[in-house]
Design brief:
This protein has a single domain, classed as LmbE-like (Rossmann fold), CATH 3.40.50. Helices cover about 35% and strands about 20% of the residues. It is built from six helices and seven strands, in the order βαβαβαβαββααβ. About 40% of the residues are buried.
């Protein structure tokens, strides 16, 4: 038909490059597991940074027993992480060894430069990370380091930064610690609840029994509640920190 234009789009140029930056393995599934499954199904590339082993500060046993127990727990958590990343088809994940629940003891510049080392060669356009007002100190430090590493620069590829909520950290905080999590961005994950539950079971050792906030049901129920807020069956909620529309 005369006057009709047909635009051919290179599908490779449509793919997003997603980077998830979390303090502990399991945060990525709790906070944005359904959203990552959606990115996977859209053909987007996903990388994940884990800043700590998520174990080091938890045991109060004698030193030798503590070290042995920590090694076992670290191995369990790494296995869980690898299973989750495989199901999410994560292209690459990075494990750093900052001290669990003690990241505030490390100079912020060191944490920031570690994140920048990944950003320098993985030109992500979408960033997911922790909310800055979480009760967990590692979450707050990671949030601050991410915003520092992702500060606006000419030629930066970053177009969107979203912060998520993590059960038993975000909702347990208070304004005396930081800003309240007030979502303004929702992702429909109604069709991913069953698969998100599978991802959470990989981290079964980190889950709590009902009716704890961090139980599997508690996490999935939060998704149902967030969905109800915006007329959906299930949703993951975020705070949009920055978005650049090109």
């Amino acid at each position: 038909m005369e006057g009709t234009r047909v635009m051919t789009i290179d599908p490779n140029k449509m793919k997003n490059k997603v980077l998830v930056i979390v303090a502990h393995a399991d945060d990525e599934v709790i906070g944005c597991g359904g959203t990552l499954l959606k990115h996977r199904d859209q053909g987007d590339e996903i990388h994940v940074i884990y800043m700590t082993d998520g174990v080091g500060a938890r045991s109060s046993a004698k030193q030798a027993e503590k070290e042995s127990l920590e090694l076992i727990k670290i191995k369990q958590r790494l296995d869980s992480q690898q299973n989750a990343c495989k199901q999410l088809t994560v292209t690459k994940f990075y494990n750093f060894d900052f001290p669990d629940n003690q990241m505030d003891q490390v100079p912020l510049i060191e944490i920031t430069q570690t994140i920048e080392s990944v950003l320098n060669h993985y030109q992500a356009n979408i960033i997911y990370t922790h909310h800055g007002g979480d009760l967990n100190v590692d979450h707050r430090i990671v949030h601050q380091a991410v915003l520092t590493a992702c500060r606006p620069q000419p030629q930066s590829t970053i177009e969107k930064i979203l912060t998520f909520e993590v059960n038993s950290s975000t909702e347990w905080s208070s304004t005396s610690i930081g800003t309240t999590f007030v979502p303004n961005y929702y992702v429909d994950v109604s069709s991913y609840q069953i698969e998100k539950k599978e991802l959470l079971t990989y981290y079964q050792q980190e889950m709590k029994p009902d009716p704890h906030s961090r139980s599997i049901n508690g996490i999935l129920n939060l998704n149902k509640s967030r969905g109800n807020h915006v007329g959906l069956e299930c949703a993951e909620a975020f705070m949009l920190t920055r978005q650049i529309v090109k």
